[in-house]
Specification:
Blueprint lengths: L1 H16 L23 H14 L7 H16 L29 H16 L5 H16 L8 H21 L64 H13 L4 H9 L11 H16 L3 H29 L4 H8 L19 H17 L5 E3 L10 E3 L3 H13 L5 H19 L6
Antiparallel strand pairs: 1-2
Helix pairs in contact: 1-5, 2-4, 2-5, 2-9, 3-4, 3-6, 3-10, 4-5, 4-6, 8-13, 9-10, 9-12, 10-12, 10-14, 12-13, 12-14, 13-14
Length: about 425
């Protein structure tokens, strides 16, 4: 009976957020506990709520705060494993985190407290409905805690989670990640990136090279130069690279169009942002594996670290190489009326971000959970789209990468380089040892 009441309470909490969304894609009602330790469902429910909030906005910072969310969750529950170590000993400029004492804790309560506090802190412009959903989900877990809310154990667990959230947010306030493009003037020379149709917007993320990486080893991930020198000569390697994009655009199959459309990820109510889509997939994989809370927290932390570091390394290389997009070259030298199948995002071409950033996330997660996991991505069921199925976690990144070639916005070398660099970044993050 109590479990049934708990499920009804969860449904009510999410209904406050958005009554028109399909709840069966949002809440996982399987509370199985594989390791007889804290259940991961609390983390899954909070990430699902964060993803629903993200559907309303296209925040340039979402690739940054996913890292803080995962690290905060990990720090709030890691002491369930007495041999765990804090990420503050592993990451750049991360301050010491609050430490649990030797008393008894309810780690679900700590996870609930840290996630509720961080969602309030990191999401700007929350609507009254958003805040009500956060309050409702927090209250559901508090009211259904195995520890009485008036007990010292409950109060200690809640206060610990809240103290971690405060420490994480204070660390975030020292972040030098600059997501603005104010004052950026694209350089002009043959082959340089130019703003693209239809919006001709200025480049996004031009200054992220100055941001601190979470992991020092990722500073040594050097993206090789773009493979071919710029050329307008018909038959040159550069020309043929771009001609491949044009040729495939003229004969796209239905399946190729479906793949291209599935990864548009342009936010603004039309879908998730790219990081949002990545974490939707990670959440589905964690749910499918039925791991405990501690393992889920490690996956979310490492995926978030990889998301940020992958973004910094990718966009640093993009603005260093400053390669123009296919649409610019094709309209100028091949077909003046051509447009890609999907809109071209406003930043230089090489390397491909979907391949490199998504690949970093998937590789980091695979290093914790194992790569050879069959999965089906239901991220866009709510839009009526057919789910995509995969034989491994990293194959998600491979499909996300090739989707950009089918969409007409990336050259094949950009995708291949992005996937290769993703393996390095994801491996560096996956190799962080969190036990002694």
């Amino acid at each position: 009976m109590k479990k049934a009441i708990f499920i009804l309470a969860i449904i009510s909490a999410i209904f406050v957020f958005n009554s028109c969304q399909k709840l069966n894609e949002f809440i996982n009602f399987d509370h199985s506990d594989k390791d007889n330790k804290a259940d991961a469902t609390v983390a899954l429910d909070w990430y699902r709520l964060e993803l629903r909030i993200l559907l309303e906005r296209n925040s340039a910072l979402n690739g940054v705060y996913f890292g803080y969310l995962g690290i905060g969750l990990y720090e709030a529950v890691r002491s369930e494993n007495k041999n765990s170590v804090s990420l503050s000993s592993k990451l750049n400029q991360m301050p010491l985190m609050p430490q649990a004492d030797n008393k008894s804790y309810d780690w679900v309560v700590s996870a609930n407290a840290v996630m509720a506090a961080m969602l309030r802190s990191f999401n700007t412009g929350l609507t009254p409905g958003n805040l009500a959903s956060i309050d409702s989900l927090e209250n559901v877990y508090n009211q259904n805690s195995t520890a009485n809310q008036n007990s010292d154990k409950f109060k200690r667990s809640q206060a610990f989670g809240q103290s971690v959230a405060t420490a994480i947010y204070n660390w975030y306030l020292t972040d030098n990640y600059n997501a603005s493009n104010a004052g950026y003037i694209p350089p002009v020379y043959p082959g340089a990136w130019e703003p693209t149709p239809p919006a001709f917007a200025n480049g996004v993320n031009p200054f992220v090279s100055a941001a601190r990486l979470y992991l020092s080893s990722n500073a040594s991930v050097v993206v090789p130069p773009a493979p071919f020198p710029y050329s307008e000569t018909v038959g040159s390697d550069y020309y043929n690279m771009i001609k491949q994009v044009y040729d495939i655009s003229l004969s796209l199959t239905t399946e190729q169009k479906n793949i291209a459309g599935f990864y548009i990820d342009q936010g603004n109510g039309l879908g998730y942002t790219p990081p949002g889509h990545d974490f939707s997939i990670i959440t589905q994989v964690i749910s499918q594996k039925k791991v405990g809370l501690a393992i889920a927290a490690e996956v979310y932390a490492k995926a978030g670290i990889a998301e940020r570091d992958g973004t910094i390394v990718t966009f640093t290389a993009k603005y260093k190489n400053n390669q123009l997009r296919p649409v610019t070259y094709i309209r100028r030298f091949i077909d003046p009326n051509w447009l890609p199948f999907i809109p071209t995002p406003p930043h230089p071409e090489y390397p491909a971000a979907h391949a490199m950033v998504t690949g970093s996330v998937m590789q980091a997660a695979a290093r914790v959970l194992g790569d050879k996991i069959k999965l089906t991505d239901h991220s866009y069921d709510f839009r009526g789209w057919t789910p995509r199925s995969f034989t491994s976690i990293f194959s998600v990144a491979e499909e996300a990468g090739i989707s950009r070639n089918y969409g007409g916005i990336h050259y094949l070398p950009s995708i291949n380089t992005g996937l290769a660099m993703a393996k390095k970044i994801g491996d560096n993050v996956g190799e962080i040892k969190l036990n002694y």
